[in-house]
């Protein structure tokens, strides 16, 4: 099955073309430069930029197929793939910024109507959850030659359900039970700010620039976590997160600090903030993995036994300290942790193509595209009926 995938959920305009579970090309046009000067994503500017770039991004996605696939697969004329040849369009319908989502959905509808194609409505967070399984040519080559530990090569066919997903992005911080591909339950969620948002806000307080996560991580590498900030949700018995208290504590700490705010101070402060944020995620993940065999969580019955794997996704997974913590936690519980390739941590349409392919396999096409609307708050465990 040939799929064109589109994601315009936030500030990246992206398109990808896939054949079954294999990505033929993936294009991401980042609008960071546009939003940087405002210190965050401005929805109206995101919409305008998506509108200006969507056609171009889709064209480049098709044009790149030939280059990527040339002579790698015999007897297939990849250079000839056009909108006419695809079977379906998979598009993010939520969660995300309503007026940004709207651009991708409108484009997908237009293509489906003009070329008589099927429409697949994809949840952005399911895309992040499955992004460790994205198979591109380069990855398959690398896996053969470089990766020694076969256990940690993500392959859907090898998965022993259930497992847990850890989704950490600019808008979400969630622990999700993965019963099967397409069957999820949110076990823990953020009660206020998401982890990526907290990184961005601390960076803003320190006037480090936007987006702040990567900058804070780089500075933290040169610092030590010597300042005490409160570990969020220390006493809560659920798997939820909260980062707004940490953000406020960071703000007061900075306001009241009377010493010199030199480079070393900033680095130590970033290291302290990052340490506490990661420790809070570690505690909840460990709690979840410990409780699993008990089959009871937040009053929900957990059918199916212990978690057999951890699936990671979302922009904050770029953070090497978070990856290290999750790897160590997985090791402690004797299960594999699967991470996306670096370029698929942040928003991209390749992950939407993959989630779309599994929906297509389950025959979950939209029946009436006129009824499709953006779902800015669509939760991953909420099935939609179109
Ligand atoms: O998944 P994503 O690209 O977009 C959303 O769907 O939200 O995530 C973006 C978030 C931003 O908040 C950004 O600061 C954060 O991911 N981020 C990081 C790092 N790289 C990106 N946070 C911490 N450390 C990083 N290295
Ligand atoms: Zn995202």
Brief digest:
The chain has helices spanning 32-36, 43-69, 98-115, 124-130, 137-145, 195-205, 212-221, 244-256, 263-291, 320-332, 350-361; strands spanning 2-7, 12-19, 22-30, 88-94, 118-123, 135-136, 163-168, 173-180, 183-188, 296-297, 300-301, 310-313, 337-338. It has 386 residues and is an alpha/beta fold.
Give the helices and strands, then pairings.
Layout: E1 2-7, E2 12-19, E3 22-30, H1 32-36, H2 43-69, E4 88-94, H3 98-115, E5 118-123, H4 124-130, E6 135-136, H5 137-145, E7 163-168, E8 173-180, E9 183-188, H6 195-205, H7 212-221, H8 244-256, H9 263-291, E10 296-297, E11 300-301, E12 310-313, H10 320-332, E13 337-338, H11 350-361
Parallel strand pairs: 1-4, 3-6, 4-5, 7-12, 12-13
Antiparallel strand pairs: 1-2, 2-3, 7-8, 8-9, 10-11
Helix pairs in contact: 2-3, 4-11, 6-7, 6-8, 7-9, 9-10
**Bound ligands, each once:** 5'-O-[(R)-(carboxyoxy)(hydroxy)phosphoryl]adenosine, zinc ion
Mean pLDDT: 89
Structural class: alpha/beta
Beta-strand segment tally: 13
The largest beta-sheet arranges its strands as 5-4-1-2-3-6
Instruction: Kindly report how far apart the N and C termini lie.
Output: 21 Å
Biggest β-sheet: count, sense, barrel?
A: 6 strands, mixed
Query: N-to-C SSE series?
Result: EEEHHEHEHEHEEEHHHHEEEHEH
What proportion of the residues form beta strands (DSSP E)? 15-25%
| Helix residue percentage | 25-40%
Give the low-pLDDT segments. Answer: 139-151, 294-299
Radius of gyration: 21 Å
Net shape: globular
Q: What is the count of DSSP helices, taking H or I runs of 4+ residues?
A: 11
């Amino acid at each position: 099955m040939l799929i064109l995938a589109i994601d315009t959920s936030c500030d990246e305009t992206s398109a990808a073309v896939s054949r079954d579970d294999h990505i033929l090309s993936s294009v991401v046009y980042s609008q960071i430069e546009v939003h940087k000067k405002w210190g965050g994503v401005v929805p109206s500017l995101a919409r305008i930029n998506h509108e200006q770039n969507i056609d171009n991004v889709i064209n480049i996605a098709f044009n790149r197929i030939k280059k990527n696939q040339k002579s790698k697969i015999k007897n297939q004329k990849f250079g000839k793939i056009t909108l006419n040849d695809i079977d379906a369009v998979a598009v993010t319908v939520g969660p995300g910024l309503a007026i940004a989502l709207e651009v991708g959905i409108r484009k997908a509808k237009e293509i489906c109507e003009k070329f008589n194609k099927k429409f697949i409505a994809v949840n952005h967070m399911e895309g992040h959850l499955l992004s460790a399984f994205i198979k591109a040519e380069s990855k398959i080559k690398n896996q053969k030659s470089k990766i020694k530990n076969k256990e940690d090569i993500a392959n859907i066919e090898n998965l022993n359900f259930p497992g847990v997903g850890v989704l950490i992005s600019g808008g979400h911080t969630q622990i999700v039970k993965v019963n099967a591909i397409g069957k999820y339950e949110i076990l823990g969620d953020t009660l206020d700010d998401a982890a990526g948002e907290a990184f961005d806000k601390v960076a803003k307080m320190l006037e480090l620039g936007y987006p702040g996560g990567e900058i804070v991580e780089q500075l933290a590498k040169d610092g030590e976590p010597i300042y005490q900030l409160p570990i969020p949700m220390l006493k809560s018995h659920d798997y939820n997160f909260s980062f707004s208290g940490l953000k406020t504590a960071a703000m007061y700490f900075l306001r009241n600090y009377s010493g010199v705010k030199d480079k070393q101070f900033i680095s130590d402060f970033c290291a302290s903030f990052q340490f506490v944020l990661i420790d809070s995620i570690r505690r909840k993940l460990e709690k979840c993995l410990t409780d699993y065999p008990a089959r009871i969580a937040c009053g929900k019955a957990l059918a199916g036994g212990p978690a057999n794997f951890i699936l990671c996704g979302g922009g904050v997974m770029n953070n090497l300290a978070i990856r290290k913590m999750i790897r160590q936690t997985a090791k402690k519980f004797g299960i594999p942790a699967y991470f996306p390739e670096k370029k698929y941590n942040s928003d991209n349409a390749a992950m939407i193509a993959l989630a779309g392919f599994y929906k297509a396999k389950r025959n979950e096409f939209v029946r009436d595209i006129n009824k499709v609307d953006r779902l800015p708050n669509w939760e991953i465990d909420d099935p939609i009926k179109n």
